[in-house]
């Protein structure tokens, strides 16, 4: 009798487990459960966007924000009187064809989320970022860029090109964001709440992934091309070669502040050297830290001596920080000798290329053979500009980041040819006392040359 009961129970249990196993194989609808207390207005946002913009909803649902119960309201909710309130958004609260489209769920919201908004949860990151050259790049750009200051391109060329990375000065027009300034997620965007930048330049909406920001492809959105080809330089370097070969083994999802060389990754990415914590160095969102040369400037100077935006740092202290990062993977001799050759490359660029070319340019202006009223309307002005802005940057950056083809063939080799052509034409003008030919129909000029008052105040 006991044997029969045991057999019957065993059969029943087997059937139960089989049923459970079979049930596990059925596809299930993914459910989003909000464990943190979410106000009805927050639920309304989620339900509405789930229907109207499913891509945004899906991105957010997969984010750490969603896991922590952070909803649309935590980032987008505006306060009465805010300058960037989305007036048109209110109309969605009176539409019967939308889930929860009722007035009782109305909350004023702002479309652009700013570092000031993010600082409610990420105060240290926002403070570090605010001091960086990234956040202040509009100021830097207007202080050194002849395209803007001379109006040699159009406003739309700037918006689709320069401002896409550098950022716009956001403005409202007729209760909406001015299309002349929006959409934009540039690193130096001037927001209506007075904050600078956009965290979504690197942590894109609406996942805001740490993993994404650690990958060099993210930096390569802006740091590429003839004038600042950091992504191309990285890919050519040994660091980039190892990354491409082994990136499938990298643990990009390591917790913030815990991303460790030799454990989570084999060779560094841009973020590893310039931002991530390593060795004794904490994580920073100020990319101006750890730099001992201003390699993008016409004349290479120390970051604290860069007049358009002095870093306020001591280059020796910052170099030691970067050396500490390097020494997580390299021996002392390797690191010290690398800096010796980088310093030599800087010296040779400054003394043998830039300074003589700048002296010649100034002589031509003094003699009246070049016209100062506009820049780029004479060939020698373009030659001089590209000598430092293109080949000169590639030579210096290629040397600093160990990319031999950019240090030489795309760098110093092309510096020589640009320099020789510049000097030949300049000497011919001086010897013949001939004024340089001016392009009479330089195309599509007329961009506004007024410096933004939001950055510089009234001029």
From TrEMBL:
Annotated keywords: Signal
InterPro entries noted in UniProt: Cyt_c-552/4, Multihaem_cyt_sf, Multiheme_Cytochr_ET
Domain of life: Bacteria
One of the Pfam families matching this protein, by short name: Cytochrome_C554
Position of the signal peptide: 1-20
Segments forming domain Cytochrome c-552/4: 118-177
One GO MF term attached to the UniProt entry: oxidoreductase activity
Protein's name in the database: Hydroxylamine oxidoreductase
Organism: Pseudodesulfovibrio cashew
């Amino acid at each position: 009798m006991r044997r029969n009961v045991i057999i019957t129970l065993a059969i029943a249990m087997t059937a139960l487990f089989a049923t459970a196993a079979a049930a596990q194989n059925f596809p299930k609808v993914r459910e989003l459960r909000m464990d943190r207390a979410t106000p009805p207005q927050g639920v309304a946002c989620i339900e509405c966007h789930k229907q109207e913009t499913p891509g945004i909803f899906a991105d957010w649902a997969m984010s750490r924000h969603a896991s922590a119960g952070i909803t649309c309201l935590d980032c987008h909710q505006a306060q009465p009187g805010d300058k960037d309130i989305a007036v048109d958004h209110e109309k969605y609260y009176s539409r019967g064809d939308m889930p929860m489209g009722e007035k009782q769920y109305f909350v004023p919201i702002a479309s652009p989320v700013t570092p000031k908004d993010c600082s409610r949860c990420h105060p240290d990151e926002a403070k570090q970022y605010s001091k960086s050259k990234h956040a202040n790049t509009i100021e830097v750009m207007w202080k050194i860029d002849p395209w803007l200051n001379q109006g040699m391109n159009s406003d739309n060329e700037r918006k689709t090109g320069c401002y896409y990375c550098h950022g716009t000065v956001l403005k409202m027009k007729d209760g909406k964001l001015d299309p002349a300034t929006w959409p934009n997620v540039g690193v130096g965007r001037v927001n209506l709440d007075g904050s600078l930048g956009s965290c979504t330049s690197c942590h894109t909406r609406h996942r805001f992934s740490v993993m994404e920001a650690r990958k060099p492809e993210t930096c390569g959105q802006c740091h590429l091309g003839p004038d600042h080809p950091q992504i191309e330089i990285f890919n050519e370097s040994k660091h980039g070669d190892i990354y491409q070969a082994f990136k499938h083994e990298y643990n990009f999802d390591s917790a913030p502040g815990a991303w460790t060389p030799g454990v989570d990754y084999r060779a560094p990415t841009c973020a590893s050297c310039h931002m991530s914590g390593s060795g004794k160095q904490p994580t920073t969102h100020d990319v101006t830290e750890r730099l001992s040369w201003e390699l993008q400037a016409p004349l290479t100077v120390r970051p604290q001596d860069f007049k358009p935006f002095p870093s306020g740092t001591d280059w020796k202290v910052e170099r030691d920080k970067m050396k500490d990062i390097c020494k997580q993977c390299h021996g002392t001799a390797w690191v010290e000798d690398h800096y010796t050759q980088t310093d030599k490359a800087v010296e040779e660029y400054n003394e043998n290329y830039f300074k003589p070319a700048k002296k010649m340019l100034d002589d031509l202006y003094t003699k009246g053979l070049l016209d100062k009223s506009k820049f780029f309307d004479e060939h020698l002005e373009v030659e001089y500009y590209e000598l430092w802005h293109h080949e000169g940057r590639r030579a210096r950056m290629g040397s600093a980041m160990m990319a031999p083809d950019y240090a030489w063939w795309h760098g110093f080799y092309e510096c020589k040819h640009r320099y020789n052509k510049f000097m030949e034409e300049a000497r011919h003008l001086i010897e013949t006392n001939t004024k340089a030919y001016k392009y009479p129909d330089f195309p599509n000029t007329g961009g506004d040359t007024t410096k933004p008052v939001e950055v510089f105040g009234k001029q």
